[in-house]
Amino acid sequence: MKNLVTVFSSPRDTFERVRGSKVAWILPTILVILISLVSLVLQMPYLLDYTRQAWLKMGTIDPAQIEQMLGMTTITTYVGGIVGIIIMLFLVALLLVLLNLIVRGEGKYMQFVNVVAYANLPSVIGGLLTAVLLVAMNAQSLTDVSLSLGALVADKTSMAYRILSLINPFTIWGLYLYIVGAATMMKRPRKKVAIWIVAVWLIYSLVTVLSAPAV
């Protein structure tokens, strides 16, 4: 429990403590899942409305059928959210193993699973804060509230909005934890590890943004 607090104040010391543990990932993962579920509950009305409008614009689905489909969408969103978190936990850890080989580090797979579990905390906290603000401000759509630089762009359908939305303090915070955690497990200079992690994040994020269909 202590590590859930100290990972924000003393990340390097925290990762040193969990270095030898094969189960340290469990508690932060449970917390990430719980926070994500709360965020989904708060955002679900907005997600369903967005999906409903998208299907109505298609004009090929009967409105009555859409409501039935939305019920199934709710279930799959919750289940997919949980499963996705678990899959990404172990998948990203594999990518860190690859980086470990590249920089000739000393890290092991389960150590990187621990890193991913703790490094995911800032992003879900940011997601929860966004969801709370959506409800508190009685927002009309998901894009009405943003903690990123995308909030400075008026046209929420523009490419500028998508790109600036990548610059989020909680995302940067999470990247920092990835860098500190990975460098600690690999026993390699933080700067060397940071170059690789930031580069991969930038490439992945830009490809995702550029390949996303226009709203």
TrEMBL record:
Keywords: Membrane, Transmembrane, Transmembrane helix. It is found in: Membrane. Residues 6-209 form the Yip1 domain. Pfam families: Yip1 (PF04893). The keyword Chaperone does not apply. It is a multi-pass membrane protein. InterPro entries: Yip1_dom. GO terms for cellular component: membrane. The chain crosses the membrane at residues 25-48, 78-103, 115-139, 159-181, 193-214. This is Yip1 family protein. It comes from Paenibacillus woosongensis. The lineage of its organism: Bacteria, Bacillati, Bacillota, Bacilli, Bacillales.
